[in-house]
Specification:
The protein contains 18 helices and 38 strands. It is α/β, with parallel strands linked by helices. The chain folds into 4 domains: 92 residues, Alpha-Beta Plaits, CATH 3.30.70.80; 373 residues, Rossmann fold; 130 residues, 3-Layer(bba) Sandwich (Glucose Oxidase, domain 1), CATH 3.50.30; 110 residues, Immunoglobulin-like. Strand 2 and strand 3 form a beta hairpin. Helix 2 crosses helix 3, helix 7 packs parallel to helix 13 and helix 8 packs parallel to helix 9. The longest helix has 18 residues. The protein is globular, with a radius of gyration of 27 Å. It starts with 5 loop residues before the first helix and ends in a 9-residue tail after the last strand.
Length: 775
């Protein structure tokens, strides 16, 4: 029964000696929904709170969200003691605090090989036969943007249950308008304990971005959600640019897709886990096919991760969940949203650069990246911040333009050269009176930021040339030139410095991220009321803006997934992910291996399976399919106990057998392969099952790439299919030829090759066992 007895509640209350009165948002997770009606679940949530808090009035004031569509639970303002009482009630699976979550194109789709006519027509006559709906969990959407024009679209699918919620909006100019393109809009208002940030900075740099208007519905006041939504689903808009930069036709990955906004993030910064879970719950009920989620927190166990739990229920209902990997790179084990049922996306560059060059007083021109839309009036004196430290302060921190360490009187009227140190940071306040700023550091050098004063970012090698010029010249000068657009840049793609990296901190045998996609300096739609930057107290607006982050790469994959869903409506979320992974490229536009931001060769923990190739993914030949029950079995084999697995699945009937004592790597039919615990005396084997989605009669031959210290053998070495839909299995065995360093990883691959298909899976191998790799 869902109702609780008053006797049980009173017994629990006796165990509480005192209430400290400190309230915060908690999530009460009660497992799967089953066949229980939503209204019955909502009533049960109110009953629980009423019984614990003592009155219906207090229960109504306490509850924030009732989860009742794809899973059962609620979020409420509770004291720690009340949360503990509820955690011991029947039918309650777990209770945990709601954590703070952080938000993690004209040329990008061209770069990925999605031609405009293909984008509109689909890649085959089947494209568009299924009416795809993409749900976006973000900061909102600007309905008036040309990217969401609904011209030519048919009626909204009858299966759609979503809302266009404008509750409490009285100003008609602020209404969120739904159309045949924008089919829904829900908003999850701020709670008193939620934190938000007005900074638009990708990596915590203080750029002086303006505080903008916010709306209490799904209308976007900050831009992030409009940008991501148009990247995934925007229609073609010619002549789009940011003040003339990156000009071209802006479009999304699948322009026929409908879009629904779930505004759970505010002011472009942070929002709470309870709101994200509510958005997931509603989106699945409404009928989305793809969920694009450009946000996430620190890696954590799946049974303690609200996004992982909500995503599991979405995937179990057939929804593809695409999530950003995070912007905590290049630190290892930093990848977020790494649950095996989530499609995890890293970020890379495209073959376009916005250059703001520097002309030194000796007539040498050096390359830089910056958003400077005005022609310079003249050259200015050039000073190194390290040479103008305040009296007695650290030259080290002054050279990095840390507020309080730089002499403001010596800044005024000059162009200031700063070292941009990701471990220290940078503050506009330190150089507020400067005429311009040059920031040197490889980590940020390719990023386009909107600063309040003319600014350009340069690589360290360029910075050294500037330092040499300053030190060797009596009166050094410089000019920061107006920005220009460079195309056909090589090499590209390059892995973005900020893109979070593997190995997977929770499941090291699951290679994450899964794939990479364009996420560096992406042009997409922007709200007309949200200023790009403020210069000399003047706000500058644009209908399109350039942004960077895995937030931008995620909707590229969401758009590609929408296209695959339109062509293959019967494919599962796992099959769609498999198609995108096994057809991804590991080569750049010079036909060399994709490089990292520091010019080293990237690997599977940087790129996953590689950069997506949507056109090839439509016809992958073979797919690795996975059912929801397969994920449960994998978790059990991974060491999760019955209680923990029930937390994730919501199924009270789930039970786990103790893992085998000699098991090292659990089995999951994943498109990438991980081996753990490999030593010279303990070879490792795993099985994979592939489904033929290509020609009925086809033969695939295995090609293995292995590290020099490891032997990799596959049996059988060829797969012969006689029908479409047929499944065949193979076993792959890794053997160490000599001792492997503990916790070091080696990489290889297995590629199945047929006459017209290449199906590649990365392989990651370590001698460490799971217990040796911790969060």
């Amino acid at each position: 029964m869902l109702k609780l007895t008053a006797v049980f509640v009173l017994l629990l209350l006796k165990t509480v000696e005192s209430l400290d009165g400190q309230e915060k948002d908690y999530i009460v997770y009660m497992g799967g929904k089953g066949e229980t009606e939503s209204r019955v679940l909502t009533a049960s949530h109110n009953d629980i709170l009423t019984s614990v808090l003592g009155s219906e009035e207090k229960a109504t004031a306490s509850i924030i969200y009732s989860y009742k569509h794809s899973f059962n639970g609620f979020s409420a303002r509770l004291t720690k003691e009340h949360a503990e009482i509820i955690s011991r009630m029947p039918n309650v699976v777990s209770v945990f605090p709601s954590k703070t979550i952080q938000l993690h194109t004209t040329r990008s789709w061209d770069f990925l090989g999605v031609a405009p006519q293909q984008n509109e027509m689909g890649f085959s006559e089947l494209a568009g036969s299924y009416d795809v709906i993409v749900g976006v969990v973000d900061t909102g959407l600007w309905p008036e943007s040309k990217s969401f024009d609904d011209t030519g679209l048919g009626p909204v699918p009858s299966r759609w249950k979503g809302l266009c919620n404008n509750t409490g909006i009285t100003n008609t100019s602020e209404l969120f308008t739904c159309t045949k393109k924008i089919v829904g809009g829900r908003a999850y208002p701020l709670s008193s304990s939620s934190s938000a940030s007005n900074s638009r900075s990708l990596l915590g740099m203080s750029t002086g971005s303006p505080i903008v208007q916010e709306f209490n519905n799904s209308r976007d006041g900050t831009g992030h959600g409009t940008h991501t939504s148009s990247t995934a689903t925007g229609v073609s808009v010619s002549g789009a640019s940011l003040f003339g930069l990156a000009e071209g036709t802006a479009r999304g990955g699948y322009s026929k897709a409908r879009v629904a906004m779930y505004k759970a993030c505010w002011n472009g910064g942070f929002w709470s886990e309870n709101s994200i879970m509510a958005a997931f719950d509603d989106a699945v009920y409404d009928g989305v096919d793809v969920l694009s989620v450009s946000l996430g927190g620190r890696p954590k166990q799946y049974d303690l991760d609200g996004i992982a739990i909500a995503a599991f229920h979405a995937v179990a209902k057939g929804v593809v969940v695409s999530c950003s990997a995070g912007n905590s790179g290049p630190d290892p084990k930093s990848v977020a949203n790494a649950a095996p049922w989530i499609l995890t996306v890293g970020a890379s560059s495209i073959d376009r650069k916005i250059e703001s060059a520097i002309l030194l007083g000796n007539n040498v021109t050096l390359p830089g990246t910056g958003l400077n839309i005005f022609d310079p009036k003249s050259s200015y004196s050039l000073v190194s911040a390290g040479n103008i430290a305040t009296n007695g302060s650290s030259k080290f921190y002054a050279s990095r333009c840390v507020a309080g360490y730089v002499d403001a009187t010596k800044v005024k009227g000059n162009i200031v050269y700063c070292i941009l140190d990701p471990d220290v940071g940078f503050s506009v306040a330190a150089v507020a009176n400067a005429t311009g700023v040059i920031l040197s550091g490889d980590f940020y050098a390719e990023l386009l930021f909107a600063f309040t004063i003319p600014t350009t970012l340069v690589h360290e090698s360029v910075g050294k040339q500037i330092e040499s010029y300053i030190s060797s010249t009596k009166n050094p000068t410089a000019t920061i030139l107006k920005s220009t657009t460079l195309s056909n840049v090589t090499p590209a793609p390059v892995v973005a410095s900020f893109s979070s990296r593997g190995p997977n901190a929770v499941s090291p045998d699951i290679v994450k991220p899964d794939v990479t996609a364009p996420g560096l300096n992406i042009l997409a739609a922007w709200p007309d009321n949200s200023p790009i930057f403020v210069l000399n107290n003047i706000s500058y607006f644009s209908s399109y803006n350039i942004e960077s982050g895995t937030s931008m790469s995620c909707p590229h994959v969401s758009g590609a997934a929408a296209l695959l869903k339109a062509v293959h409506p019967d494919w599962s979320p796992a099959a769609i992910r498999s198609a995108l992974m096994t057809t991804a490229t590991i080569l750049d536009n010079t036909n060399s291996p994709i490089s990292d931001f520091n010019k080293s060769t990237s690997g599977p923990f940087d790129t996953g399976a590689g950069e997506i190739n949507p056109q090839k993914a439509l016809d992958p030949g073979l797919v690795y399919d996975i059912t929801p029950q397969d994920y449960i079995s994998y978790l059990c084999e991974s060491g999760y106990n019955t209680t923990q697995v029930r937390l994730i699945s919501g199924d009270p009937n789930t039970s786990c057998k103790p893992p085998k004592s000699n098991a090292t790597t659990p089995f999951l039919n994943y498109p990438s392969i991980g081996f753990m615990g490999l030593t010279t005396t303990s070879p490792q084997s795993t099985e994979r099952i592939v489904t033929n989605v290509g020609a009925p009669k086809s033969v695939y031959t295995a090609e293995i790439t292995a590290p020099s210290s490891i032997s990799i053998v596959v049996e059988p070495s060829s797969l012969e299919f006689s029908s479409t839909g047929q499944k065949l299995s193979y076993t792959i065995t890794a053997t160490a030829k000599n001792s492997l360093p503990v916790s070091m990883w080696s990489f290889g691959s297995i590629t199945w090759i047929a006459s017209s298909h290449t199906v590649r899976s990365p392989i990651a191998i370590t001698s460490a066992t799971k217990g040796m790799i911790s969060l």
